[in-house]
Amino acid sequence: MAKASASTARKRRPRPARSSARVRSVFAGNAVVGQSGGPTAVINQSLVGVILEARRQKAIGKLFGARHGVQGLLKDDLLDLSRQRTDLLEQVADTPAAALGSVRKKPTPEECRQILAACRRHDIRFVFYIGGNDSAETANILLETARALEHPLRVIHVPKTIDNDLLVTDHCPGYGSAAKFVAQAFMGDDCDNRSLKGIKINVVMGRHAGFLTAASVLGRRTPDDGPHLVYLPEVAFDEQRFVADVVAVIERFGRCLVAVSEGVHDAGGTTIAERIAARAERDAHGNVQLSGSGALGDHLAHLVRVALPQARVRADTFGYLQRCFAGCVSPVDAAEARLVGRDAVRFAMTNDSGTVVLERRPGNRYASRTRLVALSEVAKHTKSLPREWISAAGNDVKPAFCRYASPLAGPLPVIARLEARR
Amino acid sequence: MAKASASTARKRRPRPARSSARVRSVFAGNAVVGQSGGPTAVINQSLVGVILEARRQKAIGKLFGARHGVQGLLKDDLLDLSRQRTDLLEQVADTPAAALGSVRKKPTPEECRQILAACRRHDIRFVFYIGGNDSAETANILLETARALEHPLRVIHVPKTIDNDLLVTDHCPGYGSAAKFVAQAFMGDDCDNRSLKGIKINVVMGRHAGFLTAASVLGRRTPDDGPHLVYLPEVAFDEQRFVADVVAVIERFGRCLVAVSEGVHDAGGTTIAERIAARAERDAHGNVQLSGSGALGDHLAHLVRVALPQARVRADTFGYLQRCFAGCVSPVDAAEARLVGRDAVRFAMTNDSGTVVLERRPGNRYASRTRLVALSEVAKHTKSLPREWISAAGNDVKPAFCRYASPLAGPLPVIARLEARR
Questions:
Q1: DSSP state at residue B83
Q2: Which of B150, B338, B349, B354 has the fewest CB atoms nearer than 10 Å to its CB?
């Protein structure tokens, strides 16, 4: 599909269309690209994918970079990306976090009109917006405003998120590298916990979806490897049950490594972190701030200490390290992040607005391809880890999850143990 | 020096010495190796260095591995390391944390006598103990007990610590890899903070010494790169001054990335973490537990929020990730960790007990060599970051520190930024 759009795009200008001529006639002009939401280790791969492909497309004149997403369009804070050096761009692609700057902002109807005014001013007909489901919603709002105002605009959402919670797509660029980080962190921490036995609780990012916390198991090789317990937002979290689980693992292995999602919540849907936080901060999309605080881990460690006063109990909150660690990138993730950026531009040549999704190709060896779907299919809502990948007891994940996620995280370091000869 | 000991060691048995014959006559028998204290990413390199070199030395019969350090000698929990497969050992060397298991234990006089009884039982004449300054103290206590009981024993301490706080040695195996982790974490987090501006506080390990926290600056390249503020245990921490520093950086850069050592303390010497912790845990060496809790970071974030209520403030505590992350190893650090293990065995052939230290060779290119010094020179006490490497204001480190630490952390990823063309 992407290839098809690429070959069409080689022609200088799109042919006048027979039907829906109003839409087709706008398919040439300047373009803008922006980054939005929490950055990832590979979001700049998508940016560079857009930049390099936009240079190849004759229908695109100038490519602007909006600093801090829609904020850059509102404040006319735009970079000319047409003349950045290619060798520099390749280095930027390998640099974590959003090179253009990011933003967490849902534009108001008035701001949407201002953004469209900026697009008119700069003859912008293509908007490429790299972000998660909140950013897809922003893209969709912008598109709907443009249609209402009869402003010719194509808006392509380019997916990224470490949470892997976007709808429709098989998986999301950014997830593989974060999963690799979490897997490697647990592999090392499991060795650490084996060295100095005790109870270790690690809090992993993931507000609504447990994909990243589940990645903690990707390095497990033997039955006593940790994490021994995995708690996800997909299953109601019961504190008494949690403590009983830890006690059972201690009785079995003499140690216990726990992975907990920051988004775990009680049966009523209130997150444990929310209950703890005296003053919960909310961002513009109405999300409570769960990261950047050690409160949940400390609270869970306290529960365990009460039950097992003699035990050595520690808690770490991985926090922001897991989304932008320099030098921990999954090669597959980097390649796919580049691909969705490139194909966003190709799709924009022959299609209307939409969001780029990834799907697996059939076959034993992992391979993926892109497809364009409507923004409304992805905007705002999130996907959860399928229940059939979670153990019956709700405190671990099944091998089916590993088959899904391992190719995305890529190769992991080898962990070896001495043979138990006496 | 190491080479000299190696060539001597090729001979089957040491020659009868003319003087101090009592000591020289014990120089053949079995050996034991143990690991102690907080594990590191390269402590198994030292273990494998000991194992492979002990196989080459005819004066050494069997090599036992003590599970969980002195605990293994007390409980007769010993592995026979003589027959482990070499290819497996090479994989173990690349595996983080202590493959034999570690322990935080200072043996009592009675336990020392039990340990010596175990050494007699197994004909052990060489003890190789891999650990930090607490482990050097344990090694020294053991040696003194052996001398008092006239038990022929050579005890060689093999240095490891991520804190880099051992006396005499130029630097310590384990530090370089942890420094690399901290540097890369800050490089990524600085990009993250540049993307979504705000105040970010990262708490780094290091109870008494600021070497690891100082490593946060190793990836800085431009004047506005973070961390913008660095607080070390070597300088008294003033909370009001800290808040004022953050406000000043915000005014200058519109964002602020802070590195804080977990061991920062007030002018009276009480750590801030201690003041916060309602119930401070102490380990067997009398150290307060500062890691595995997000309390210090959360406290500092709260101070900043009070002063700058509109700012986005986050805190992360790196915790145990920084000492054992799988797949983040400095090649120089790995090689030196192997070297000190190997040379510990070589020194044991021709010298009495002691601890292996590293020194820099003169010249422009970084290179190091080993030397043996008395255990008492290293045991128990710690080294601090030299004051002349800390800025006059006490909230940053100077380039002299980077010249010291960069070769130890090794190459770092490249961070690139778009050119600011409009």
A1: G
A2: B150
Q: What chain A residue is nearest to B63 in terms of C-alpha separation? A: A422
Query: What count of residues does chain B have?
Result: 422
| Residues A301, B293: C-beta atoms closer than 8 Å | yes
Q: Are B178 and B409 in contact (CB under 8 A)?
A: no
Residue A282: how many other CB atoms lie within 10 Å = 9
Scan residues 167-226 of B and list those with Cβ closer than 8 Å to A: 184-185, 187-189, 191-192, 194-197, 200, 219
Quick check: B79 and A418 in contact, CB under 8 A?
Answer: yes
**Spatial distance between the Cα atoms of A108 and A15, rounded to a whole number of angstroms:** 35
Helix (H) / strand (E) element for B141: namely: helix B133-148
Confidence grade of residue A27 (pLDDT, cut at 50, 70, 90): confident
**Which amino acid does the sequence have at B347?**
F
Q: Which of B391, B389, B393 is nearest to B404 (CA)?
A: B389
Contact (CB<8Å) B326/A83: no
| Segment holding A142, helix H or strand E | helix A133-148
- Residues 226 to 265 of B: which have CB under 8 A from any A CB? none
Alpha helices in B196-329 (DSSP H): 211-214, 239-253, 272-276, 295-307, 321-324
Name the residue among A97, A185, A412 with its Cβ closest to that of B188. A97
pTM for the full predicted model:
0.91
Q: Where are the alpha helices (DSSP H) in B269-364?
A: 272-276, 295-307, 321-324, 331-350
Which residues 361-420 of A have a C-beta within 8 angstroms of B?
412-420
* A173-214: pLDDT as tens digits: 999 999 999 999 999 999 999 999 999 999 999 989 999 999
Answer yes or no: do B320 and A192 touch at CB < 8 A. Answer: yes
A residues 90-119 lying closer than 8 A (beta carbon) to B: 91-92, 94-104
C-beta atoms of A200 and B292 within 8 A? yes
Test A84 with B293 for CB contact under 8 angstroms: no
B76 touches chain A (CB under 8 A): no
Determine the Cα–Cα distance for residues B35 and B131; give it in Å rounded to an integer: 6
Q: Which residue of B has its CA nearest to A86?
A: B418
What is the Cα B109 distance to its own chain's centre? 27
Per-residue pLDDT in tens (0 to 9) along chain B, 422 residues: 333 333 333 444 444 334 343 444 447 999 999 999 999 999 999 999 999 999 999 999 999 999 999 999 999 999 999 889 999 999 999 999 999 999 998 999 999 999 999 999 999 999 999 999 999 999 999 999 999 988 899 999 999 999 999 999 999 999 999 999 999 999 999 999 999 999 999 999 998 999 999 999 999 999 999 999 999 999 999 999 999 999 999 999 999 999 999 999 999 999 888 887 644 444 445 444 444 567 889 889 989 999 999 999 999 999 999 999 999 999 999 999 999 999 999 999 998 899 999 999 998 899 999 999 999 999 888 999 999 999 999 999 999 999 999 999 999 999 999 998 66
Strands A354-360 and A368-373: antiparallel
Using the Cβ of A273 and the Cβ atoms of chain B, whether some distance falls under 8 Å is answered with no
- Cα distance between residue A162 and residue A159, in whole Å: 10
CB of B64 closer than 8 Å to CB of B354 = no
Taking CA atoms, A410 is separated from A34, A131, A331, A332, B335, in Å, by 28, 22, 7, 7, 26
3-state DSSP call for residue A129?
strand
* ipTM of the complex in this document: 0.91
Enumerate the residues of chain A whose CB falls inside 8 A of the CB of residue B69: none
Interface residue A76 vs chain B (CB under 8 A):
no
Q: Active-site residue among B87, B123, B163, B245?
A: B163
The first and second tokens of residue A301, run together, are: 């460690």
According to DSSP, residue B397 is labeled B
Three-state secondary structure call for residue B213: helix
Residue at token pair 């063309």: B421
